[in-house]
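Quick start: load a record and inspect it. Here is PTS sorbitol transporter subunit IIA:
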Amino acid sequence: MSEPYYQSTVLRIGDEAEELIRGGVLILFGEPLPGDLESLSVVHRPSDDPVLQMRPGDELWLGETRMTLTAVGERAHENLLQLGHLVVYTDPDPAAGLLPGALHAKGPLDVPEPGAELKLVRA
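Running the structure step on this input writes:
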């Protein structure tokens, strides 16, 4: 198993985040975050800054869930580094464009529990 190049712990799940996750969209934010975004977000606390930049083929682990990154927006690394912010779209329509700060991933997405570990792993 590869060592994670980024690790974080889920602190809480916003009131509206579960519905988004069930629809295939995961919004992550580190603290502090704007209050109006908290209800939509999975709030987490990073252990440290990422030591590598994300790339397609890497894995995102969220608790017991494993997803493979299929596309990485040009601002995704900067957003993660500065804000602890990522938006992950799982199994998006192939015609859907990639937003600059977003990730596309394939695989299951489940609602994490507070205390779950978030990891990025080079495949």
